[in-house]
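Build the 3D complex.
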Amino acid sequence: MGDLLAVPRGWLESFGDIVKFTSRIVADVASLRVFKYFGETLRQAGILIVSSTLVIWGLVFIIGLQCGIEGAYFDQSTGTPAYAGVFAAWCDLRELVPLCFGYMMAAKVGTGIVAEIGSMRISDEIDALEVMGISGVTFLCATRLLGSMLVLPFVYLCSIGAGFFASYLAVVQQIGDVSSGGYFLIFWQFQNPPDVLFSLIKAMAMAVVIVLVGCYYGYNASGGPVGVGTATAKSMVFNIVSVHLIGMLGTQLFWGTNPRAPIGG
Amino acid sequence: MMILTGRTIVSAVTPPYPYGAEFTGQFLFALRLCWFPLLVSTVAFGYEAPGLQAANFLVLFGALDRLGGFFVLASIREFAPFVDAIVLAGVAGTAITADLGARRIREELDALEVLGVDPIKNLVVPRFLALMLVTGLFDIYALLFGIFGGVLATLVNHEPLGPFWATFFNNASTTDLWGSVVKTTLFGAIIAVVCCYKGMTASGGAEGVGRAVNQAVVIAFLAIFAFNYVFTQVLLATHPALTTIIK
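Done.
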């Protein structure tokens, strides 16, 4: 039993550390100290665009297809195949696109940050920075946070587009129970700009947590090459659970039991 | 990776079978590491996506009792396997890559080969089998907790649970259940092969292991999602009885 509880106990212990560490990063960004290294921020933003966007869109595209076929079959079973658009709109915009964005952010960006900063820590590069009078937290972590905040909202909005396109392909072109016009009529009626905003807030909350957790595990890596690998694996565990929890809290907070739909009472 | 898959399967079925102890160790390792993240994730996911949002959709039609039927479709067929695979890949898969990558960097794998011990038979095969078994078994666990999320969503809507279970058991079919378990078992195989391959081919010192974990989890996620889509589509197309009207 002691072994079984090791994971949750480890989390509780590291949770306090993470909060303390991340508050330093956030303070660096909020107090605008990070703008000393604005060039580095832009470089990080560029790296993010070049290396991660396509794979995020790819994953969201596949989940859009998935939402499409599930929605089409579900609406067959309630006898309302023309309403497949509702399922696709909600499944994509409200739930699965934020979640998949979170998964891929955790997998690609989060572990990438841990591996990068972790190996800098192991090879004493961070100590070298500090000796030169450059704060490692500001230069490495705060720039990454600001860089991702500059880029990710746009990446996310595009990935919503990828998800929508994939659902359209699956529902209209593949299953074909509903015409293109009928699908889009329902599809656009069942969403509105606040939904996009809420969805964006949810995804950005996930992204911020993922970047911060990645920075924490990378910055505090220890124990040679093995330590970097272990820290990367640990950050993934933390991120997966926090993505799900943020998704759940966001849904409860923004939509709850109020569907915000154009029909019904 | 395909070569590794082939060699793993051949090596698993040809005698001798020296990997019993390692298999048990890996099995318990994955079990210990994953049970808690999986519990939190599946309850959160079940409550969130299929629970709240589908309940909102069904309330519009005044048909909240169909939520149980929807959970057969959503939880058993789709989301329990998928959350299960994501958590296993993110938790156990990354741990395997980090472990094997560290052994590669410290030249332990080369040492094993020099000693005449086949690393595939002794390291990859037990992880492959253990991960297949664990992912398959955890599917049931994920199902139970996913449905628990659905129960929570029903209660939040102030609805009785009777109709939920009634439509749930009316619609549950063994085809869905075995489809789900087979699917997750294959997910486990995908995760194990990708993560072992990336771990065993890690190179380049400290950064190499981290990068191997990074690539392993990205490839595993993409492979899981793509495979999931193909499998669901094939299952639904070959078993039209699954897509009949919710009773």
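Chain B has one domain: 39-237.
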